[in-house]
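It would be a great kindness if you could assist me with a short task in structural biology. A protein sequence and the structure tokens that stand for its backbone fold form the material at issue. I should value your view on which stretches of the chain appear to form regular backbone elements. The record follows directly beneath this note.
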Amino acid sequence: MKNVLFVASECTPFIKTGGLADVIGSLPQALIKHEKMEVRVILPLYDEIPSKWRDQMTYQTSFHVPLGWRNQEASLYTLEHNNVFYYFISNDYYFTRKGVYGYYDDGERFVFFSRAVMEALQHLDFTPEILHAHDWQAGMAVALAKIIQPIPNLQTVFTIHNIKYQGLMPHDMFDEFFSLPREHFAGFEWNGMLNCMKSGLFHADKITTVSPTYAEEIKDPYYSEGLHPILLERSDDVLGVLNGIDTDDYNPLKDSYIEVNYRHSRIKKKENKVLLQEKLGLAIDPEKPLFIMITRLVEQKGLHLLQCILEELLHQEDIQIAILGTGDQEFEGYLSHIAYHYPDKFALRLMFDEGLARQMYASADFFLMPSQFEPCGLAQLISLQYKTVPIVRETGGLKDTITPFNKETSKGNGFSFSNYNAHDLLNVIRYALSVYYDNDNWNQLSKNINKSQFSWKESAHEYVSVYRALSEVKV
């Protein structure tokens, strides 16, 4: 067993809307480098992919894609980057649009993509033994691989990155999009809708998700978004594999986005802090504790908790907070109001800017991540790389990666709280500040963070174990 084809809807450095792209950009490289596997990736060719990459692509072939009563046209392009071979499926109607998601026909677009993957397999100079599909956009690819069987004995893995987003369509779209016997309808339907996520869960040989704790949480109705019955039924096939990060990319010693590079130096972090304070219009003071959030401004990320305590925190504590991101109008409006009334202590940038994000990681003392749920989370791992202390809620991958610092035992690489409660968040922030002002404890916490390692090497090894288990039971 050596050949694996990743099927996904986004991948750095070509196209990114979230953490899924980081995983697809990094995990294949780790599998190739550390496990000597042949891993390739197939993606949609979006109009949003920069010309820098499109100009390097090589046209391979075109073919028809059956979509119910229609025949759509697809073209296949290839590109090699960082030792990974990428395939791109082009279709002007479905992918020549601004943005990646958010269209009324997203379900149809990714059904087309999944069906096109099946047709593309016969045109590849590569025969996968395992098809590894990621999130709802690729769920149908797993189902079609099992039903159509384009490659004999092709094994499948389906990875849940966020179960909240499932790809729902009216149930009558089954006859509209699929030329399949009705006996297969049950494998696609859930609660009266076609469900792309469910189709992947039902048909996959193995199911993984992006942290061990999240793998258990999604079997509970509170976290499962309604899919817990099928996850409980397939419990033996569900495994949590913790995501890693690209530690060469996220490296403060050579990050070109930051002005003062460093390895562990608190002095150089403070130099970066002063530069960021100047840039954001905050009061200049390298000793003042700086908290940051780099996030989508949505309920999942704990913004309601922050709303409850933010003014009390800014009024009573001598701190600064900077937030970068966009999201719901409710939170954007509230945070803009706070920024207006506390200009020396609170900075808000309603955008996403990679350079500014790196500068914030490099400057801050604390990273706030009080998520309602978090399948894995990458921001807390990036924070650790930049020697910024995470403050998280104990859920999903946050619980798996952040151990709360204990003054008595000197163990821990951050701070955490368990109940989704605003004053629990406030209390842990105040405890974190008590550690910040105690040099001995802060130095010990810094040493613990320096030892935290979350590269892709170990994760890649765990995925190989999943693949090997499949090859052992192959019929």
Summary: The chain has two domains: 3-244+457-473, 266-454.
